[in-house]
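User: Good morning. I'm curious how glutathione would be positioned relative to this chain. Could you predict the structure with it bound?
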Amino acid sequence: MNAHLQPLILHAHSSGPNPVKIAIALESLHIPYVVKTWDFSDDPNTGVKGTTFLKINENGRVPALEDPNTGVVSWESGACMNYVRRVYDIGNAIGPPGGSAQELVDFDKWEYFLLTTLGPMTGQTNWFTHYHPTKNDDALKRYQEQTDRCYDVLEGQLQKSGGTSILPSRVTAVDYHFEPWVRQHTFARLSLDNYPLITKWLGLMDSREEVQEAYCKIRGIGK
Ligand SMILES: N[C@@H](CCC(=O)N[C@@H](CS)C(=O)NCC(=O)O)C(=O)O
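Assistant: Good morning! Here's the predicted structure, ligand included:
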């Protein structure tokens, strides 16, 4: 099927973590795609807050995913991931590993935990570490502690697989959601020293071909 597909268009930023998740999923499923890179300005032609991009995503953020094969446009990494899974993961290679009610909920809860909690807390840590115009130690401490708390929760979950995947039986789209955010621990100036299983998991994820290919494409590096 994939040979007859027109490439999907993944709207991305060269370093933001959310678009990479979708690139990893597309790589994993061997779905052809091209990356269109935007900056974070309001330039009408190049920025996510500019008129051209706002017609694709009125929220002015990446990722957005255009599928010329279906005419569907999605944005928000959770919605993009679910679209890719529904339409292209026919064999359930990256979805919930089992079909029981509990296994379906387990997939959702870890995906939502990243989207609503670990990702945003890391993002706020980054903001108060690097970008906030005035020093705000209270806010920074709050978000650092909350991100560490998320690491505690993730470390506990990884005990179930010995650090090989977030859901116990195999790597799924849940791992793809987490990888770019956990990778950001260095930029967020957070240590993984107390998290041996997260460290192991991140190393395994980063050695996977779909992860390496995705980063090369998002960063515009040919292989
Ligand atoms: N909750 C959204 C967030 C998307 C998002 O925040 N993307 C960042 C890049 S990783 C962005 O576009 N930032 C632009 C800005 O802050 O103006 C998702 O999961 O896709």
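The longest helix spans residues 101-131. Residues 128 and 135 are 8 Å apart (CA to CA).
Let me know if you'd like a different ligand tried.
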